[in-house]
Amino acid sequence: MSGQEDLVRLLHLVATGDREAYADLYSKVSAKLFGVALRILKRQELAEEALQEGLLKIWYRAGDYRPDRGSPMTWMISIVRNGSIDSLRRVKPEASPVDADEIASIADVAASPFERAISSADARRLKACLDQLGERQRTCVVMAYVEGYTHQELATRFDCPLGTVKSWIRRSLSQLKTCLEQ
Amino acid sequence: MTDGFDDKEALAAEYVLGTLDDAERTRVRESLDTDAELAGFVNAWTQRLAPLNDGIDPVAPSASVLQLVEAALDRPGKSIRSAVAIRFWQGVGFWRLCTAGAGAAAVALALILTVTRLSPDAPEQFVASLTAPGAPATWLAAVDLDSREVRVEPVGPVEAPPGRSLELWLITAAAPAPRSLGLIDPTHPTTIELPSETISGVEVTLAISLEPDGGSPTGSPTGPVLYQGKLLNLISAD
Questions:
Q1: What residue in A sits closest to B11 (Cα-Cα)?
Q2: Residues A164-174: tens digit of each pLDDT
Q3: Which of A7, B30, B53, B229 is in Cβ range 3.0-4.6 Å of B128 for a Cys bridge?
């Protein structure tokens, strides 16, 4: 049984109220889910809160999972990611002060996910399409997704007008769609 | 638009990417149930960008996470219509600030939970679970805004030392000074009425502290805060 099939099986059991399956599922996915939350929220206690909320949503909504709507891991990450971003927006409505070291490290951070993300055909295709974007556009997209930055935060971090970032993002997403559909 | 990427899809894509602000995210989420096209876009973009998750390193969460979640699921009785999230404050500095001069209360136990109404149509019931790592105490607290009651229940063994009492406190954004709600039983569920005027706000905090027998003599809590829990709406769609 593949890892993915195993997760689908566990979600089906969780949907029936199987607490053992839930604990098993937790042992298999919690570190990845927490990693996602921590990248967005940065602070351990906020990330654990988002994880706990997400885990309860997974418990209550396991029956809503449909294999034809993506992998179980993508579904679970989406729940935790959305909760983490919501929490981030409530905690930090304004862009935080930028420090120079952080700006210098943006390119490195943005590049790193893709060095390790070429594990699947989907990932290879997304990487190829991101590579067709300009470097700053690509960095904006990856930073927004992984770190949860808003348009305003990206504009501050890149020291460019808000409108420029908005149009970068929108054009990048449009280009990505076109590229991925080829 | 002629590029096959209209405003609605752009909104969905940016929702998934995460760049929208709080109000925009709420708007998208509230539309998902009724706008199948928007929901389809969100799902498609979730799949398109999912490989970006591959590069994020797993990090093991604290052992208390599963314990707290399971404690919340263990709560018997009336159906839980709302979400639970638990915040564990690593430090006790906050409470120490509140109780400066109170001295070392080695056996002090305190917990805080925060109730957040996310939207006007959010369910009226909230529940939180709280434990004390390093101390064998687990608490569950349920807030029912319809009946204006809070029920605090020890799940694990909790002992108040002889001659000491556990006291429940209410803190709101409008009235940040802790207000006593009364004493609670360390061995049985305690239900306490909430003052009506204090719960209408967005955020409510409850705290339990260990006090001298019969309650705090000063009108303010005197124990360190070890834990905090926050309640969130489970029903909101993603």
A1: A170
A2: 999 999 999 99
A3: B229
Tell me the residues of chain B between 33 and 92 that have a Cβ less than 8 Å away from chain A: 43, 45-62, 64-66, 68-70, 72-73, 83-90
Of B3, B53, B89, the CB nearest to A45: B89
pLDDT averaged over every residue in chain B: 66
Residues contacting B214, CB < 8 A, separation 6+: B165, B183
Residues of chain B with pLDDT under 70: 1-3, 75-142, 144-146, 155-159, 172-176, 196-205, 224-238
User: pTM for this one?
Assistant: 0.64
Q: A114-123 long-range contacts, Cβ below 8 Å, gap at least 24?
A: A114/A142, A114/B55, A115/B55, A116/B54, A116/B55, A117/B51, A117/B52, A117/B54, A117/B55, A119/B54, A120/B51, A120/B54, A122/B47, A122/B50, A122/B51, A123/B51, A123/B54
State the angle between helix axes of B22-32 and A72-91 in degrees (0 to 180), rounded to the nearest 10.
140
Could you read off the pLDDT of A139-150 as tens digits, one per residue? 899 989 999 988
Cβ neighbours of B69 in A, within 8 Å: 26, 52, 55-56, 59
d(CA A31, CA B26): 28
